[in-house]
Design brief:
The complex is a heterodimer. Chain A is an alpha+beta fold. Chain A contains three helices and five strands. In chain A, strands 2-1-5-4-3 form a five-stranded antiparallel β-sheet, sandwiched between helices. In chain A, a hairpin with a 2-residue loop joins strand 4 and strand 5. In chain A, helix 1 packs antiparallel against helix 3. The longest helix of chain A has 15 residues. Chain A is globular and about 30 Å long. The two termini of chain A are 12 Å apart. The mean pLDDT of chain A is 91. In chain B, the strands form two sheets. In chain B, strands 1-9-8-12-11-10 form a six-stranded mixed β-sheet, with helices on both faces. In chain B, strands 2-6-3-4-5-7 form a six-stranded antiparallel β-sheet. Chain B has seven helices and twelve strands. In chain B, helix 3 packs across helix 4. In chain B, a hairpin with a 6-residue loop joins strand 10 and strand 11. Classes of the chains: A alpha+beta, B alpha+beta. At the A-B interface, strand 3 and helix 3 of A face strand 10 and helix 7 of B.
Chain lengths: 113, 244
């Protein structure tokens, strides 16, 4: 299964998920993404900036992050074998965070195998 | 900085950014009491009040210590028709919370042998005497929401730090507390004029037992050290706090 198929599967299998993206923190670019709607490039660029800020950049020690507010949720997991890359899930504020983290970890393990 | 264990039997803190809100919260605790119990309230200044309550009424002030206004009412059974009663109650409760932004409250439910002839005063009458609001909007204050949230996450948080109105309070496992303080020091201060809330949870890739969580609301911050498998429950508890 390609990485894009895995991102699609993660998004559709997790209620409340709007976008799943695989980002290169060092380069500041989205390597692949899944969304029910077409996302403008500016939005994807902003997503990279946010992911970098929250995880502290490509070389930082933060491996996992959750940002939650009244309007939305973002779950970030750094790839264990490629620390400059991370999986990013953006969704509704009531998204199942435990399920999101578990599914994201599974995708990352497959991607970096 | 205090560092006590979570869920300690000595009661819990009631917080309020001002005296009126603190009094409103004390009245709320009396309002919650249907079965007879003794409510013991201790202020940081060493003032102490013992209140016998039942059926959402204040039946008797059994002891009041640490201030002349508190000691004067010892052994009193409040009566809304007694002359000067409202003024005496106001002076008593204001002396209890004077200068405090939090008080410790604990309950003794073994005190059930109250005199049934004492009708006491209702929480509605007490609210009027104290001049405190019953406006539900007060419930969205950071102090109130964080109090309620902390009572729900006793099993989740290994340690917590509360930064509220320029004061700092901490509790929990010392090692977890040290890691939490380090993680919080790396974050920007909470936005002072924020009208909404944000929660940021960070977990190191190579070290540390779990997430360091910063919950910001209206310029206040609650930091928590949380094991990874309790994050879902923690966020559920916060949502439940906002919905209640």
């Amino acid at each position: 299964m390609t990485i894009l198929h895995q991102l699609d599967e993660l998004r559709t299998g997790l209620p409340g998920t709007e976008v799943v993206a695989y980002v290169d923190l060092g380069a500041g670019m989205v390597l692949g993404w899944s969304s029910a709607m077409v996302q403008p490039q500016e939005w994807l660029d902003e997503l990279c900036v946010s992911a970098n800020e929250i995880l502290g950049g490509a070389g930082a020690d933060t491996g996992e992050a959750i940002k939650l507010s009244a309007t939305g949720a973002m779950v970030l997991l750094r790839a264990p074998d490629a620390p400059a890359e991370a999986l990013c899930i953006v969704g509704a504020p009531d998204i199942d965070l435990d399920a999101a983290r578990y599914k994201a970890r599974t995708v990352l393990e497959n991607v970096t195998e | 900085m205090a560092a006590a264990g979570l869920g300690e039997p000595g009661g819990r803190q009631l917080r309020g950014s001002n005296a009126k809100l603190l009094l409103r919260r004390i009245v709320g605790e009396i309002d919650y009491a249907v079965m007879p119990r003794r409510v013991v309230i201790e202020s940081p200044a060493g003032r102490e009040a013992h209140l016998d309550v039942a059926n959402r009424r204040l039946l008797r002030i059994e002891a009041g210590l640490g201030h002349p206004a508190l000691e004067r009412l010892t052994g009193t059974a409040p009566d809304k028709n007694a002359e000067g009663q409202a003024e005496a109650l106001r002076v008593f409760f204001e002396a209890l919370v004077e200068g405090a932004k939090s008080v410790r409250i604990r309950f003794d439910t073994s005190k059930t042998a109250f005199d049934p002839t004492q009708s006491g005063i209702s929480t509605e009458t007490l609210s009027q005497a104290l001049g405190v609001s019953t406006d539900p909007a007060d419930q969205s204050e950071p102090a109130v929401l964080f109090d309620s949230f902390l009572s729900k996450i006793q099993e989740d948080a290994m340690a917590w730090v509360l930064m509220l109105d320029g004061e700092r309070e901490a509790s929990g496992d010392p090692d977890a507390l040290e890691l939490l303080e380090t993680a919080l020091a790396g974050l920007a201060d909470p936005e002072p004029n924020a009208t909404s809330w944000t929660m940021l949870a960070l977990r190191p890739a190579t070290s540390g037992p779990g997430f360091a969580v910063a919950l910001d609301l209206g310029g206040a911050r609650l930091g928590m050290a949380v094991p990874p498998d309790r994050m879902g429950h923690l966020t559920d508890a916060w949502r439940a706090t906002l919905d209640s």
